[in-house]
Specification:
Elements lengths: L5 E8 L5 H12 L17 H13 L10 H6 L7 E6 L10 E6 L8 H9 L3 E7 L6 H12 L3 E7 L8 H10 L19 H11 L12 E10 L3 E10 L1 E3 L3 E4 L5 E3 L2 E5 L3 E4 L1 E3 L3 E5 L13 E6 L24 E7 L5 H13 L5 E7 L3 E8 L2 H15 L3 E3 L6 E5 L23 E3 L11 E16 L3 H10 L3 E7 L4 E9 H5 L2 H8 L5 E12 L1 E8 L2 E2 L5 E4 H18 L7 E7 L2 E8 L8 E2 L2 E2 L5 H16 L1 E4 L2 E4 H8 L3
Parallel strand pairs: 1-3, 1-4, 4-5
Antiparallel strand pairs: 2-3, 6-7, 6-15, 7-14, 8-13, 9-10, 9-15, 11-12, 11-14, 16-18, 16-19, 17-18, 20-21, 20-22, 22-24, 22-25, 23-24, 26-27, 26-28, 26-29, 29-30, 31-32, 33-34
The structure holds guanosine-5'-diphosphate (GDP) and magnesium ion.
Magnesium ion (MG) binds next to helix 1.
């Protein structure tokens, strides 16, 4: 297919507005590139198991969602990993001998992956922006549109779910015009369920998007925007050839890496693998090389040809990277520890395997003074963290204790001071080019006396909710240090409120509170908004006089003591009585400002309300003992106090 008949596009939408359903319906209606009888190859999700499931789904088509194949994605109905599919499409009234090659670049629909989304969008000329016509414009619709506009994309708004009995297209169209400021004269009305309007959407893509720009004769530059790990083939990269050509046998290299690789296979994704001989400028496809380490496949990196048709001619300087690359930056940190201390090796094997299919998680071994060996993990955001924990449980059956998440703070030290090595055996942090040190663990927070200034990460949050909720949202935002940025009323009785707020406040259970403040009606989204100077301090939690590093946290000075008292109270509620007294304290520096006490229990384990269980009642006795043993499975002792996962939740919900 020539370049004039190629279109690269993506679909963006608020969660649950029907993106995956519509994409699957597109594949089902038109997406048959492989010849009859030819089996599709393994599809590109995060794990081999999932790949097989997806390949199977692709074969049986329909009903199952082909594009969302990771188990957690299905369970939560979200797209964690972008997936790409090429389809051959003859537009309505078009010449059947002249089909268009449409490359559908699915994007992860979550703010955690904002950078990954921006790189995927960089490979597109336009995007279908879906609005569920029973829900109207939502917070994520606004945020997605802003990202797409930043990438300079042509936006085609489209309505979804028009088959539903309560479908009400008029207000949705009105909002597309007034809130999103997009023209509504050419909006496809679609249903991923019945297939209605799907061809209208594809026709609009063909008609309204330009062909990919690119210089076929220039030295090759390809934008790597996704990758996955295949147990047998190693790392498989998904890329768009921007200039030049990629061919089987080419020796290639990335602009931000040193290693060279030889292309052993390349092709189109349908979404199974469909090998071809070469990928030309403007086209999207996958590449298999000998690459084994997923961290070598950096999203946003540029693949150049060292030896092959697309190589730079001898004597010319090598081609530079495509713009827009950023190294992956974790935005939230939390530690995990095996429930059974002797099983650190089991945990290590599990997290290393998991990291193969998730190259954006960072792992540093740590030695906590309270919980022993574990890993400090860095995640792109809260969803990314949840997915990692859930996969650890689902796919590796690995029970862990996870600490409350913390955001990266940046610290300027007083002149003449440097950071000591991390308390948990991690290396001493060194200042970046701005002279700032990043702290990712509460216990690494330096002594306040040597801190000149601290900076915390901010986000720009968008909330859409019924107007009645306006004042409760405002007061919630106030207690979470939000600064109002913009307020506009939508015509359907809802209000759009934009705030600048500290990212740490969002991390500390904010969404749950917003939901309950608005009876579940609010939608919420955010984008990173840089760092701001802030007065934050570390609060220590002590059990029987000894500080417990895994329970300490960082909070804003103004609410630090309130939070410390709250954590102490919550801990009192979740720590089981022991045979001795437990004293819980919160301290700021040397100053103890909160104290809670759990009195010892004096009764025998096997007694109930003072009466000893009769000697004859063996089964009941055994059951009681077993129940106690089970409870223990999820407990860790710190000093001589037993802590369950709830203790760490107490720290999480302190805000
Ligand atoms: P995504 O989060 O945007 O990928 O949304 P999904 O495609 O997963 O859809 C969310 C829910 O809406 C699922 O339960 C779908 O079955 C349902 N859904 C999606 N599209 C339609 C549609 O056109 N009509 C109807 N009736 N339901 C739909
Ligand atoms: Mg989806």
């Amino acid at each position: 297919v020539p370049l004039e008949r190629t279109r690269n596009f993506s679909i963006i939408a608020h969660v649950d507005h029907g993106k995956s359903t519509l994409a699957d319906r597109m594949l089902e209606l038109v997406g048959n590139i492989y010849k009859p009888g030819e089996a599709p190859g393994a599809a590109p999700p995060g794990s081999t198991k999932a790949a097989m499931a997806a390949a199977k789904a692709a074969e049986s088509v329909a009903n199952e969602q082909v594009l969302d194949s990771l188990k957690v994605e299905r369970e939560r109905g979200i797209t964690v990993k972008a997936q790409t599919a090429s389809l051959l499409y003859v537009p309505s009234g078009g010449d059947p001998d002249k089909p268009y090659l449409l490359n559908l670049i699915d994007t992860p629909g979550h703010v955690d992956f904002a950078y990954e989304v921006s790189r995927s969008l960089a490979a597109c000329q336009g995007a279908l922006l879906l609005v569920d016509c029973t829900q109207g414009v939502q917070a994520q619709t606004v945020a997605n549109l802003s990202t797409a506009r930043k990438s300079g994309l042509e936006i085609i708004p489209a309505l979804t779910k028009i088959d539903l009995p309560n479908a009400d297209p008029e207000p949705a169209l009105e909002q597309i015009e007034s809130v999103l400021r997009l023209p509504t004269d050419d909006v496809p009305w679609t249903s991923g369920k019945t297939g209605d309007g799907v061809t209208d959407a594809l026709d609009a893509v063909v008609r309204r998007l330009g062909m990919p720009k690119g210089r076929p004769d220039a030295p090759t530059r390809a934008l790597l925007f996704d990758s996955w790990y295949d147990e047998f083939r190693g790392v498989i990269c998904v890329l768009q050839v921007v200039d030049g050509v990629l061919e089987k046998g080419d020796r290639v290299q990335t602009s931000h890496g040193d290693s060279q690789y030889v292309i052993s296979e390349l092709g189109l994704l349908t979404p199974g693998r469909h090998p071809v001989r070469r990928i030309l400028a403007g086209q999207v496809g996958y590449v298999v090389t000998g690459m084994r380490d997923p961290r070598e496949a950096r999203v946003g990196d540029t693949v150049v040809v060292v030896q092959g048709a697309g190589a730079t001619p001898a004597g010319e300087p090598p081609v530079g990277p495509l713009p827009g690359f950023e190294p992956s930056k974790p935005m939230v940190f939390a530690s995990i520890f095996p429930v059974d201390t002797s099983d650190f090796d089991g945990l290590r094997v599990a997290v290393e395997k998991l990291a193969l299919t998730d190259s954006s998680v960072t792992l540093v071994k740590e030695n906590s003074s309270s919980l022993g060996f574990g890993f400090r993990c860095g995640f792109l955001g809260l969803l990314h963290m949840d997915v990692f924990h859930q996969r650890l449980a689902d796919e590796f059956d690995m029970p862990v204790i996870a600490t409350a998440p913390m955001v990266p703070y940046r610290i300027e030290l007083e002149a003449g001071h440097s950071m000591p090595a991390g308390a948990a055996g991690t290396e001493a942090a060194t200042p970046d080019e701005d002279g700032l040190i990043t702290v990712e663990r509460p216990d690494d927070f330096p002594d306040p006396n040597i801190i000149r200034r601290t900076f915390e990460p901010m986000v720009k949050a968008s909330v859409i909710a019924p107007s009645e909720a306006y004042s409760s949202i405002m007061s919630l935002m106030q207690t979470h240090r939000g600064r109002s940025d913009e307020i506009s009323y939508l015509d359907d009785g809802r209000v759009l409120m934009k705030y600048i707020m500290p990212w740490q406040e969002v991390v500390t259970n904010f969404f749950d509170k917003l939901k309950s403040a608005t009876a579940g009606y609010a939608t919420f989204d955010y984008e990173p908004a840089g760092y701001e100077a802030s007065n934050v301090v570390k609060i220590d939690m002590l059990l029987n006089g000894a500080p417990v590093d895994s329970l300490s946290f960082v909070a804003h000075r103004s609410s630090a003591e309130v939070q410390g008292r709250r954590v102490a109270q919550r801990l009192r509620a979740v720590i089981r009585r022991q045979q001795f007294e437990v004293v819980i304290q919160a301290a700021f520096g040397k100053k103890i400002f909160a104290r809670e006490r759990i009195p010892p229990y004096r009764k025998d384990v096997l007694s109930r309300s003072g009466k000893t269980v009769g000697g004859g009642d063996l089964t009941r006795k055994r059951k009681l003992l077993e129940k106690q043993k089970k409870g223990k499975a999820r407990m860790r002792s710190v000093g001589n106090v037993q802590l369950s996962q709830e203790a760490f939740h107490a720290v999480l919900s302190r805000g």
